[in-house]
Amino acid sequence: MTELQAGEGAQVLKVPRIDARAQRYRDVLIALVAFIVLALLPMVFGSKQLLDFVVRCAAYGLFATSLNLLVGYTGMISFGHGMFFGLGAYGFGLMMQKTGVPIPVAFAATLAITFLVAAVIGAICVRLKEIYFAFVTLAFQMLIHSTILSWQSLTGGDQGLRGGIPRPPFLGIDLSRPMHLYIASCALLVIGLLLMRQIAQSPFGYTLRMIRDNPTRASFIGIDVWRAKLVIFVLAALFASTGGMIMALFVSGAYPEFAYWTISGEGIFINMLGGVTTFLGPMVGTALLLLLNDTVTRLTEYHGIVLGIVILFFAIGLRKGLMDFIVEWFVQRREGANG
Amino acid sequence: MESTRKPGVSRRATLALMGAGAATLAAPWVASAQAKTIKIGMPTILSGRVAQLGTSSRNAVLLEVEKVNAAGGLAGRQIEMVIRDSKGQPQEAARIARELVNTDGCEMLLDGEASSGSFAVHEVARDLGVLCIHTCSEASSLTADPKQHIPNAFRCVRQGIHDSIVGASYAASIAKAKGLKKWATCSPDYAYGRDTTGEFVLYLKKFAPDVEVISESWPKLFQPDYTDVITKILQAKPQALYSCLWGGDLTSYIDQANIYAMFTQMEVFAVNMADYTALTVVKNLPKGIHSGDRYIKTFPPTPENAAWGDAYKAKYSEYPTNWSWQNATAVMFLNEAVKKANSTDGKKVAEALTGLTIKCPFGADGTVTMRADDHTLVGYAIGWGTTIPKEPYVLDMKAGDWKTIFELEAEWKKSKGYT
């Protein structure tokens, strides 16, 4: 790349000056309001299905949003992100079944394990570019999936972790009660999203966008691209793992399907559906996909056709995710109003 | 260039969307009141590779439910089945099972899931305390392992360990008669394949101690090409081959092995052959493959079984599967248990089911029993025979001996630390 070309790219990177602290306070405030609204929902509707829906939204939402940190913010298309979802579910489930430690300890230990595994896998993968990165992450995912299938004595093979995951009460929280699980999932979701939002809005987050747009330039101005990519790879893995733990608590088990490539595929699809240019895009995508899935499977067994048409509509019709579309529509309207 | 995107816009849009979403979500979620009809929920696999089995489960259930409803229903309440597709994903199976109970008001569950899905539904039954009958999962540990045991769950399915004992005893008698000493195995590389093959070989050696296994192959599940496996087996020159491949894998394997004339070179024992889904799909079904019964209307050789198979075929224009008879039996059990308990209350029905023996066209002696100590189905027709390329496809069925099965099963449970 010539100096001239590199210079052209620089124009796009003009970041509006925002008072970082004020924005952070506002994010925290929004998170608090969101949590309170979520916590009050069951009182208004009193439907057990709503609780299940939000718990699943929390699991998939954390997973999909963390994937967006890689895909949307850093431009790393990971096809193997589901491995950390599975790792979280299995790590947590096994810890609870085999050791009987309190839930917060198992939670922290699972995050520690995910950290180590993601650091090793990340160190190998993040050096690779685009398609190679995608395929090697997919390969690692299949490696973990195969390990789960064949390490029967530990994981139960294709039948998964059986016998239920014990959920002993801690600090007055009893996760075997649906309401407690619901509140805990909402809390994890809101905290997770808030943390990821902070990562995305921090200088580090802007570094990631720069790497996405022009890695050569980023490295020329002194950014250690490899290290930045590795850090975000590991951080994203931690949030995906948290999603996996919520799922393990929801189904009271862990199954090899959680680490299969289809989960990664769903993550990518959620991102396509919701949009990758806004922070909440994947969250909207999650709610949309789960809602579609739940309604369509109730109505017809030909859900594949319906979901396929929806994908086509977004891919060919809108050519972007729902949130991208809405945001652009608002901007256009505002510009129109301003003349 | 002015930045046009202000953060506030996206948030406002989000909030509006969330509000709209919440309103949409809430609408259908008003808990339904208990009606006079009794709803029974059934998550099963209606899409993907085993969809045919899931569909055949649904068919059988609807066939039986029709009869029960015509006779007045369960304790005077007409049955309404709510059947949904889990796509074979355990998390979906768990979600649907919860939805069926919590939202649709189903008072009982028939769990038409295989493998991991059945364990996921089992956990839902544990959490919600709803009466649940597993109708498709053959994994022995589902009921044999005391950790799995809950008072409200039952299994109305044949079991891997029963098949292995009967298969090995049949194979040993053939091995002794024909002097088959060198054996090869070829089974899918996952828990079911490994466990079932391991148990078969264990009991085969117990019944015929001079047998040795000279070659093992573990093709991947859903592998399309078996050439390497077939040539490996042919090179080892065994006198007999055991396989627990099933469904599409088994039929592809046989079609490909036919090209190498494998079936003229050794005796083949394929436990999952005698199922119409496999028998009718193979291009040239070789004569003389030994197989366990999955479902065939000629075994047990009773008019009741033949009539049931014909009635199913008349209604759905295809033969029933192994999953069909199991699901039909589950409905028969529910019907009898409700009569015995004179109530549709889950707890009372569960008590009535425990140890219940009912008349059933699929019983070895015309009856089947829901064994009290581990809530699992016993006494069903189980046997082995040899194939011919046209109807009735399998001849000379030799019935397994339930006394031997019980003895060896008890030993097996002990060896696994289950008792």
> What are the low-pLDDT stretches of chain A, counting only 5+ consecutive residues below 50?
1-10
Element order of chain A: H for helix, E for strand: HHHHHHHHHHHHHHH
Structural class of chain A: mainly alpha
Instruction: List the total number of helices of chain B.
Output: 14
Distance from N terminus to C terminus of chain B (CA atoms, Å) equals: 76 Å
CATH architecture classification of the largest domain in chain B: 3-Layer(aba) Sandwich
Number of domains of chain B: 2
- Overall mean pLDDT of chain A stands at 87
Strand tally of chain B: 16
Strand content of chain A: under 5%
Per CATH, what is the topology of the largest domain in chain B? Rossmann fold
Shape of chain A: globular
Estimate nothing, just give the exact number of structural domains of chain A: 1
Query: What's the count of strands of chain A?
Result: 0
In this structure, how is the largest beta sheet of chain A organized? none
CATH C-level class of the largest domain in chain B is: Alpha Beta
Multimerization state: heterodimer
Measured distance between first and last alpha carbons of chain A: 39 Å
User: Largest sheet of chain B, order of strands side by side?
Assistant: 2-1-3-4-5
Residue runs with pLDDT of under 50 for 5 or more positions of chain B: 1-9, 23-34
